[in-house]
Amino acid sequence: MPELPEVETTRRGIAPHVEGREVREVIVRESRLRVPVPDDLSERLVGSRIGTIARRAKYLKLPIVSEAVIDGCGATEKGTLLWHLGMSGSLRIVPLGELPGKHDHVDLVLEDGMILRYRDPRRFGFVDWLRQDQGGDPRLNRLGPEPLSEAFDGSRLFDLSRGRKMAVKPFLMDNAIVVGVGNIYASEALFMAGIDPRRAAGRISQERYDALAAAAKEVLAAAIAQGGTTLRDFVSGKGEPGYFVQKLRVYGRDGQPCQQCGAELKRVTLGQRASVFCPHCQH
Prior knowledge:
Elements: H1 4-18, E1 23-28, H2 41-45, E2 49-50, E3 54-56, E4 59-65, E5 77-84, E6 90-95, E7 104-110, E8 114-119, E9 126-131, H3 138-141, H4 154-161, H5 168-172, H6 183-193, H7 206-225, E10 266-270, E11 273-277
Antiparallel strand pairs: 1-7, 2-4, 3-4, 4-5, 5-9, 6-8, 7-8, 10-11
Helix pairs in contact: 1-7, 4-7, 6-7
């Protein structure tokens, strides 16, 4: 499943090719995604331009602006495309004329002859329309802070964990606590901080949470720099895989020796997700 670094890699990859471009045509081959593609998507987009793309957690936000200039203040925002890649989705830039594949469900044809193409074999992702006057979207309103922002630190983890008996790994993966620290990066951050993923969240000290927050920031920043992690489906906006998989210390390495101490890495299930850790280095 694409996690925050993969979505950020996608944003950075497609932004130079779509921002400021006019949408000339919308092609929907399959509308039955996790959220059905709006019937009037073509009507809303054709003739408008794409603004500056933003990311919130694992959502991509593409502002759609009109060509009309009002009182000399420039184009007005009509609404926002909210895109989620689901478990297997990808957004790529391809040239006009490149034939779509079986799982290429939505194309935005741009004025320069390029296409923003959405591919999703499992169809768990979606593209939805948010009106400018719609206000906050409930999918976004309940999210915690971005992990690379100053709003996320060890003090937040410590304060919110008091009295919590749940294991620290699913606590760290709770999007109300902090967004985007998914299974891969939670495993790696806990290893870096030396914390056993099975430990009760409420029994971890402020000092150790400081180390965990710092580790999460470091792991996510490194993953973004490497273009994300490709385990199966993910490719960037340019169709390239992510190379952080080469840097993984524990995720997916159960039964192999720990790169730090040589002990055998163990696998447990926490919150219905597999978790690999070193019983010697993490406590």
